[in-house]
Amino acid sequence: MAKSILGRKVGMTQIFTDTGVVIPVTVIKAGPCVVVAKKTPQRDGYSAIQLGFEEAKEFRVNKPLKGHFARAGVKPLRVLREVRVEDPDAYEIGQQIKADIFQPGERVDVVGTSKGRGFAGGIKRHGFHRGPMAHGSKYHRRPGALAAKGPARVFKGRKLPGHYGTERVTALNLEVVRVDPEKDLLAVKGSLPGPRGGLVLIKNSVKAIKKG
To answer: What strands lie across the sheet with 33-39, from one edge to the other?
Structure first.
């Protein structure tokens, strides 16, 4: 059964196993999420549920969303995301989904938005090598020749300086190390995309499902 939950990235720390091995983990404040709507193949053409996360003040929600939440019988929520499921009928409108849907040892994929780094040069953005840093050199961190003398234009896809970051990134096949249902916390091995406080979606690992 496909499992998904929304959360906020708290930060990184480390956990010691019983044998003294140090595991670097990222702590996530996962849920609780509420099922706000269901999508069915007969009505919508696909199977999914809509998850709501983090309560919002009523004056911050517009009228269409107020009606949407009223029909579901739930309080206004700040974040809404659709996640694909095999059987929407297995869920009920208003049902809460908490961190305990995952267990230690399970494999998950975590989807987030990478940190925004603004306008960056080729070295930072694409890992280019720099030129000589001697005083006589005129070429230090510039992009260099574009190799387009014949057509007299820059080809599409050419790696150049530009906006870097704030992209959707998925960290694949990570291990759930610890679950704290009382505090709604998940500890996932390794690093995750995005800054502290960034929104993330935790779901079953695609690679683990294929192996199974």
So the answer is: 77-84, 48-55, 33-39, 96-97
